[in-house]
């Protein structure tokens, strides 16, 4: 299975002006609604870290305007595209069914029902582009100009007679799977998010658009069950989430977030991302600023209700996040349930390691052999009796105990000087 390790680096988040390295934000999306601010209160203010303005996609809270809303009902215009040199095989709706209803269900589960994701197909056949696929020059990491600009303009022109773009929050483009190389060779899937340079359709910019190519089929026979997962990853970008994998692959976060690994068995989002997306109430987030020792309770992240996230800010830009991960909901590969601890840095850009998970069992080899799951970090969670220390800053995060009974809650002690 060594060959598969190389395919864990998946997809790229590219902003409108990758040439200057600056994401232009501030205009509105198709529906005029940016991401809603996450649940907040005065007590949470020190935990709302933010990064420099030249960070393209930051882990900062709240997410800046320009991305799609991530709560309530969102409508995803979903178009199936083909080309004269890559004609769509079979029915375009069969291509649609590779991703739905699974993607809708994935978001419903992860958001505790707060995101009602509706994919609509006003054009239910293949939408033929006027130029052959190779003429657009869409390679891995291709910037928005010129190929993608041409492609989006051609998509708008071809779809416009049958589509009112004002009805939708973002665009999904499901390419015919025979356009471009196999995803085992190179993954072309990409999202242009918060794109103020986007072509305008029906008076609104196509500012948030996810493109999915090929099939993420690792040959293990699980494609029908797990192959859709590239789309929730790409849509994570339209909601403003950065990539958590780096040039070295999934070694920073492992399988603990779909923005890190979207091949293989299902996984959820980190609690930090759920807060950022507006899926946690203020009462579900603890902000650990007080000197001395404070006790917190955590309930399993995959289950609705109860406290989910403790954040220990160490600067206006960084801090430690603490949450309880168990095998439930979208988290189907968890092999060592426990308290996951990770560092969030709002100044580190997408794909550069803005989040790093701490491994409670370094160099153990991990506890999973599931394909396309970063094994070493699979046993990262801390158990009762174990702790994480940052001696320089005088911070200790200790797992005090796991509650008996059905609630499955854990107690965590945060100490800081
Ligand atoms: Zn990505």
UniProtKB/TrEMBL annotation:
GO MF annotation, one: metallopeptidase activity
Chain coiled-coil ranges: none
Keywords of the record: Hydrolase, Metalloprotease, Protease, Signal
Domain of life: Bacteria
Signal peptide: 1-20
The keyword Signal appears for this protein: yes
GO process annotations (BP): proteolysis
Keyword flag Signal: yes
Name of protein: M6 family metalloprotease
Species in which this protein is naturally found: Streptomyces dysideae
Source organism phylogeny: Bacteria, Bacillati, Actinomycetota, Actinomycetes, Kitasatosporales
């Amino acid at each position: 299975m060594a060959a598969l390790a190389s395919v864990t680096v998946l997809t790229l988040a590219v902003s409108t002006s990758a040439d200057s390295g600056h994401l232009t934000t501030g205009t509105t999306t198709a529906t005029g609604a940016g991401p809603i601010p996450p649940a907040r209160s005065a007590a949470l203010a020190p935990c709302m870290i933010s990064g420099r303005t030249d960070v393209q996609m930051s882990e900062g809270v709240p997410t800046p305007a320009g991305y799609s809303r991530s709560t309530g009902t969102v409508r995803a215009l979903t178009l199936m595209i083909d080309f004269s040199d890559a004609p769509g095989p079979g029915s375009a709706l069969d291509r649609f069914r590779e991703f739905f209803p699974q993607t809708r269900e994935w978001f419903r589960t992860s958001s505790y029902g707060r995101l009602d994701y509706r994919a609509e197909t006003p054009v239910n056949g293949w939408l033929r582009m006027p130029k052959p696929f190779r003429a657009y020059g869409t390679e891995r990491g291709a910037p928005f100009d010129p190929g993608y600009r041409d492609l989006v303009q051609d998509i708008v022109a071809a779809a416009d007679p049958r589509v009112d773009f004002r009805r939708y929050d973002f665009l999904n483009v499901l390419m015919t799977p025979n356009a471009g190389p196999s995803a085992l060779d190179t993954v072309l899937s990409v999202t242009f998010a918060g794109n103020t340079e986007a072509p305008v359709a029906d008076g609104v910019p196509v500012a948030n658009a996810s493109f999915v190519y090929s099939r993420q089929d690792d040959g293990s026979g699980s494609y029908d069950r797990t192959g859709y997962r590239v789309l929730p990853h790409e849509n994570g970008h339209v909601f403003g989430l950065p990539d958590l994998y780096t040039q070295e692959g999934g070694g920073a976060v492992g399988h603990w977030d779909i923005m890190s690994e979207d091949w293989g068995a299902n996984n959820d989002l980190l609690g930090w991302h759920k807060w950022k997306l507006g899926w946690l109430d203020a009462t579900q987030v603890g902000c650990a600023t007080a000197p001395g020792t404070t006790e917190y309770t955590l309930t399993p992240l995959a289950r609705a209700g109860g406290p989910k996230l403790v954040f220990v800010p160490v600067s206006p830009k960084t801090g430690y996040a603490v949450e309880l991960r168990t095998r439930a909901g979208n988290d189907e590969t968890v092999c060592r349930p426990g308290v996951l601890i990770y560092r969030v840095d709002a100044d580190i850009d997408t794909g550069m390691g803005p989040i790093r998970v701490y491994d409670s069992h370094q160099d153990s080899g991990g506890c999973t052999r599931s394909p396309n799951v970063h094994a070493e970090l699979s046993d990262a969670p801390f158990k009762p009796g174990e702790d994480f220390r940052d001696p320089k800053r005088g911070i200790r995060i200790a797992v005090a105990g796991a509650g008996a009974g059905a609630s499955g809650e854990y107690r965590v002690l945060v100490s800081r000087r």
